[in-house]
Amino acid sequence: MNVERSGIRPGEARHPDESTQEIIARDRNGAPAWAREVSYEYLGSEDIDKARYTEAAFADAEFKRLWTRTWQMVCREDQIPDTGNYYVYDIGPYSFIVVRTDDGSICAHYNACLHRGTKLKPSATEGSAIDLKCPFHGWTWNLDGSLKDIPERWDFQHLAGRKMCLPQARVETLAGFVWVNMDPAAPDLKTYLGKKALAHLDAWKLENRYIYLHVQKSYPANWKLTMEAFMEAYHVGDTHPQVAPANGDVNSQYDIYDEHVNRFISTLGVVSPKLKGKYTEADIIENFTLGDSSSLGGKKPELKAGERARQVMADMFRNMFETATNSDLSAVSDSELLDTYSYTVFPNLFLFPGISLPMIYRFRPDARDHRRTIYEVMFMRPKPRNGEFETAEVQKLADHQSFAEAEGMDPGFGKILDQDTDNLYAQQEGLEASAKMGLTLADYQEIRVRHFERTVDKYIAMEPFVPRIENLQP
Ligand code: FES
Ligand SMILES: [Fe+2]
Questions:
Q1: pLDDT at 167 > cutoff 50
Q2: DSSP characters for 46-65?
Q3: Which atom of ligand 1 is nearest to the CA of 114?
């Protein structure tokens, strides 16, 4: 089949059905300005070279250029509230002890002993410590990284006059998260995110949420391929057919902001334009995935004659979340309550700040296998007014396990994530088997993929930055 030309300029074609903005405009509780804006830009139609997903050399270049220069989310601030609380953040070969120090500030120490290199704390651990002591010969540092003790110091006269502080990465806090960056020359985090995206992040007030469920699983594909599986709703109809009757998939909206942030808005409570006429408003409610609300006792409402499913669902969510979280959501728009707002923060973070399915995804490449990704999904809830909450510990799933097996996971949502995993097996293997050297992208629906890969290219074109004690701050 030949693809026909319509005469429309590249990037301007849209699904002819109702747009995301038209759907939102009909809601009773109107959306704020930042939700109503569109920010698409055509970035070309060339294929994306497959080598970036299949070659170990490309992953190596990323470790020297991209991961060492970008801001990465480590944990929530409330995971290390007190002096001595630490969280070990691992990214590829690098590892950091992110610790709350005596003066309340947070430091990110390179997780390696200055004697003979031993990791001071095991990877993927968290806990509390009064100092940082190496398990091998007992060299010890204070929480702020200053040297505390070298056993048998008489034998290290040659270190006289050297401070021997632990080298540190940069740390910032924003939206309740702790972030690190290895590059002393990188822009600060706010500049990195850009003004527009920062305004969105401010509006979502994620500092007022906490993580109540955290699940990790290894995915069988390159980290970029894995991330890109979540950047578009184009795949919903074929990959998640059970969702399409209640999801505006092919009329989702895609926006790009500067170089490090992009988003989509995918409406819920409306039928996919591909299925128009096949489902009634009552069917939409029947096919709605309740997400977090199922664990809070949410129930599908009855629809009265003439009512719009989307409005009834929004009202149901508003009432239920107000009761369950003891909060006032009367000013929150129907769209923020219902719809999937998905933001990518380069390089490896997704924020889904909407209220009915509020999530965080984090993707980290496996240091030893460029075809594997450590994927984490975290679910957020508003912090209760009494301030009592507990951040969830991570549940690690084995490869053969379904996401639905995680304790506290909505089974319907677990199934959606399993469907995505199955595609990734096939996609990584297919790319390696393919005689076609590039991936072809839709101009509009896959703009987030192109935008993301363009930023990858920007970092790959830079000189390597490999952290060495001489080129870091003390
Ligand atoms: S390697 Fe750490 S004290 Fe010897
Ligand atoms: Fe998916």
A1: yes
A2: PPEETHHHH-HHHHHHHHHH
A3: 2
